[in-house]
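Here is the promised in-class demo. Please do not try to memorize the tokens; focus on the logic of going from shape to residues.
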């Protein structure tokens, strides 16, 4: 919390002298200060992703290079900056990370500063880097960002309108990304500094969007379930069982978000499908496989066509409520951050980061005031001015080029305006250009 280190200042100065403005901005966003990357630096980098003359590979490689630092703060802030650009920057940035092999090699990262907090944060850095790698991999496989696709609408929602075959290939990819995010697995007591707080907020927003998309895919899957062949039904049932497990893990993540002070209105409600639906799905698969017990029995009415349709209808209604809740939360979470020039950010963790940053600025201000108070009064500094070649003597008169000239009272009364038609009387340079008056006889010789 002591501000920028000497190494940060020297690196920024070196890059500034070299004219490497992009590298300097990356360095400024990933300093060793234990606070989240500053908004002005993130906004500038966001702007760079939209500029056609800025090299996206260069920007990405500069950030990846910062993750090779030995300091956990620099590495963590570099990952946060990458995540921020993937969420809110131009899609070219995500496309480059997905198409290249420049993944974050941080599976064995361990902070080398020798402090306990660095050791604790190293665990979350490894998990965070794994999620960002999975996020880029999902984009490479699916050819779109699950956090940015259109959701909720049955007419034009991406996963609501996807055919069964493609849906069965896409949902496992989405599940892997959700799993990587949930593996961050932090508690409210572990959010102890501005860096991990910023990372948690980005993960929270990603989870809201991912699960809304995930929920849409499951609704589409259930609507097509009873029209699939046996192999597809088996895969679909496995996907649905994994979805139920992830719902419980998502609920735990949202509890952590609530405990750290996020408004309950920003946390969506999870509505689970009725348990009878799982029984109906399993019975349908058993019927297709010809197992005993797959046929209808007096104690298993859902196996009938009417019962199955009722179970699916109730489940779709419940999951639609979840989609609506998560879609609204995703829209509200995207609102403040999309306005990069405004100050509409009202998240508690963001406020905490701003308060930490303000405390550091106040500390620098007090230190500077103490330094100024220890100096001598302002008058003493005149003698030590390096731009004054010689001390100024009190008896030396200097020409006043800008002030009004002093006029002698007696001489002023005798002069007339017509005697000085060229205004040479008040000109301080007139002594050098005025010529002596010529006698009438001398004028002919001059001519």
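The designed amino acids, position by position:
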């Amino acid at each position: 919390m002591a501000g920028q280190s000497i190494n940060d200042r020297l690196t920024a100065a070196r890059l500034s002298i070299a004219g490497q403005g992009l590298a300097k901005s990356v360095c400024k966003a990933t300093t060793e200060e234990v606070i989240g990357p500053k908004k002005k630096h993130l906004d500038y980098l966001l702007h760079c992703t939209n500029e056609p003359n800025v090299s996206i590979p260069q920007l990405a490689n500069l950030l990846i290079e910062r993750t090779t630092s030995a300091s956990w703060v620099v590495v963590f802030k570099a990952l946060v900056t990458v995540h921020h650009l993937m969420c809110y920057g131009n899609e070219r940035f995500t496309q480059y990370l997905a198409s290249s092999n420049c993944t974050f090699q941080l599976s064995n990262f361990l902070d080398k500063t020798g402090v306990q907090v660095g050791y604790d944060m190293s665990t979350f850095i490894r998990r965070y880097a794994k999620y960002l790698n999975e996020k880029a991999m999902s984009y490479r496989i699916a050819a779109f960002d699950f956090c940015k696709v259109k959701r909720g609408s049955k007419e034009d929602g991406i996963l609501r309108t996807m055919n069964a075959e493609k849906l069965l290939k896409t949902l496992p990819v989405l599940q892997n990304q959700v799993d990587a995010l949930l593996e961050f697995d932090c508690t409210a007591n572990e959010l102890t500094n501005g860096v991990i707080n910023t990372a948690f907020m980005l993960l929270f927003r990603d989870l809201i969007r991912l699960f809304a998309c995930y929920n849409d895919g499951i609704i589409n899957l259930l609507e097509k379930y009873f029209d699939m062949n046996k192999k597809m039904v088996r895969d679909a049932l496995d996907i649905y069982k994994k979805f139920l497990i992830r719902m419980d893990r998502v609920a735990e993540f949202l509890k952590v978000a609530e405990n750290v002070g996020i408004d309950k209105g920003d946390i969506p409600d999870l509505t689970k499908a009725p348990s009878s639906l799982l029984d109906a799905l399993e019975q349908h698969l058993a019927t297709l496989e010809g197992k005993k017990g797959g046929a209808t029995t007096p104690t298993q009415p859902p196996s009938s066509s009417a019962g199955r349709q009722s179970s699916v209808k109730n489940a779709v209604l419940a999951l639609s409520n979840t989609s609506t809740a998560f879609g609204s939360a995703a829209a509200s979470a995207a609102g403040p951050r999309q306005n990069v020039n405004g100050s509409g950010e009202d998240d508690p963790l963001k406020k905490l980061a701003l308060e930490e940053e303000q405390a550091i600025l106040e500390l620098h201000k007090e230190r500077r005031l103490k330094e100024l108070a220890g100096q001598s009064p302002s008058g003493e500094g005149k003698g030590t001015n390096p731009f004054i070649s010689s001390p100024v003597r009190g008896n030396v008169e200097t020409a006043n080029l800008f002030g009004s000239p002093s006029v002698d009272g007696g001489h002023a009364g005798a002069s007339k305006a017509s005697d000085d038609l060229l205004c040479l009387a008040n000109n301080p340079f007139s002594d050098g250009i005025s010529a002596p008056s010529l006698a009438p006889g001398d004028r002919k010789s001059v001519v």
